[in-house]
Amino acid sequence: MLHRASGGSSSPSIAGATLGLADPFAARREVAWMIPAAAAGCVGFDGTVDVASFPHTETMIVLSGALTVSVDGAAALTIMSGSGVVVARGTRLRIAAAAGTRWAFYAATAGTGATPGVTLLDAGAALAPSAAPPANVLIGPAPDCRSFNAYTETGANLRAGLWDSTPYARVSRPHKLSELMHILQGSVDLTGEDGTVFTVAQGDTVMVPQGAPCAWDSRVHVAKFYVVQEAVA
């Protein structure tokens, strides 16, 4: 668990973990999960930083406060709590954070071929029908799922966007991709390998590594931001 909207406990940061000397938020970054190709956690930052070339591709889901992201030749984006942005590696930009700003992040620290720029993650984006989980893992009827993939970085096997679904349950299985989820609406019970049930509700952020056993049980409509990557330790 990276963040609880209720202010409850979350995963501790990994002592000494760093995204490299070029990381503009190194002093404020709390890394909760890390493999050679990626990392996830939270950042608390206020102030302004200019970055000549962003060192990795980072998805930022704003949990409190506000971020303003400025790129030459484009209108500045202000990202409020409950929205997000993807900053592609190589982007030249200015990031300004209001007092009390905190975000959950997923950073793809390896990969090539990104096009510099920023992509807004908007909870109001139009969704299109998408595939339900396979019938052989479902417990009960198939749900109606929709999604909007806002960002793709082929060289890092990375995608980020918005997804929602009617209630459904599925058996535990190894998670197909490493995934950061930020719940926008509803709640879901995720059951880990040892049988521990994590209830992830509106405003919560959780990280599920690729290959980790995980069962899903949602009894209400669920909407989430997702960042998924084929990234294993």
From TrEMBL:
<feature type="domain" description="(S)-ureidoglycine aminohydrolase cupin">
    <location>
        <begin position="158"/>
        <end position="226"/>
    </location>
</feature>
<dbReference type="InterPro" id="IPR008579">
    <property type="entry name" value="UGlyAH_Cupin_dom"/>
</dbReference>
<dbReference type="InterPro" id="IPR011051">
    <property type="entry name" value="RmlC_Cupin_sf"/>
</dbReference>
<protein>
    <recommendedName>
        <fullName>(S)-ureidoglycine aminohydrolase cupin domain-containing protein</fullName>
    </recommendedName>
</protein>
<dbReference type="Pfam" id="PF05899">
    <property type="entry name" value="Cupin_3"/>
</dbReference>
<dbReference type="InterPro" id="IPR014710">
    <property type="entry name" value="RmlC-like_jellyroll"/>
</dbReference>
